[in-house]
Amino acid sequence: MSGSERAAALELPALGHGAANVGNLFRAMTDDEAWAVLDAAWESGIRYYDTAPHYGLGLSERRLGAFLQTKPRGEYVLSTKVGRLLRPNPQHAGGLDTANDFHVPDDLQRVWDFSADGIRRSLDESRERLGIERIDLLYLHDPERHDLDLALAEAFPAMEQLRAEGEVTAIGIGSMVSDALAAAVRSADLDLIMVAGRYTLLEQPAAVDVLPACRERGTGIVAASVFNSGLLASNEPRRDGRYEYGQLPDELWERLLRIAAVCADHGVPLPAAAIQFPLQASGVRSVVVGGSRPEQLRQNAAYAAQEIPEELWENLAAEGLIPA
Fold this sequence. Notes:
- Helix 6 links the parallel strand 7 and strand 8.
- The strands form three sheets. An eight-stranded parallel β-barrel has the order 1-2-3-6-7-8-9-12, surrounded by six helices. The chain has a two-stranded antiparallel ribbon with strand order 4-5.
- The chain is of the alpha/beta class.
- It contains eleven helices and twelve strands.
- One of its GO terms (cellular component) is cytosol.
- Pfam families: Aldo_ket_red (PF00248).
- One of its GO terms (molecular function) is oxidoreductase activity.
- InterPro entries: AKR (IPR020471), FDH-like (IPR044477), NAD(P)_OxRdtase_dom_sf (IPR036812), NADP_OxRdtase_dom (IPR023210).
């Protein structure tokens, strides 16, 4: 079975939930607050859930797993990630993991391991934290931050073996670096990739190399971080909004204002256009969005279902704001 056939066999909903927030991303939340967020996602019809050991040093997996254990296993798709193992932190002195933006005790540390044994161990440990045996989709997480060549030589073959053994249904890469995504698609037998922030309504660098590589190889795409660090999450963008790891460049701010104006002309909420834009491209199977409050999850689901006139995309393309 080819990668495209395996990806098609995995019934991936158009809207998914990224569970970094329930790992205390940017702010701490209680178990009850995290449960309310996940419950709102489920009640809104979301049936694809993505997590990772990186998110809250395992807290996201534990909370998401506890929630999903109350749901029929056949009714949702679950993905997690490999590449970083969680091990005791000998430097722990009561601090928090805020250097990585997670408000959790830093009693554990992330240890890169792209070996076959490390990949298998990561999957097993994620299963234990989740309390769920079957993982549908396994991504290699940010391999370019460690050693992309090593990932291509060791990690991806190990993941292909796990798939061949039936341990997971599909495999891929999750990254916010277009070069790494394109290299992985061309070099490994991947089913799906998670493109984080590189194919959004605001900017589309992945359209140059990643999307064409996926079309050539029959690799499916999951779009994540489609709000560009929150810049597209409201109808009235803020100039002081966070953009990845720094301030928003002037040229992107001007572009954002033009996009918002076109959306306003068509009476379309900017966040609705942001969620639905990636799905206009062939090969994009799902859009994953997060949220730290139940009302955000309900609103995102409504935005995903909102009818958007074709003229909006045509006008954005005519102004050179999205690919034609």
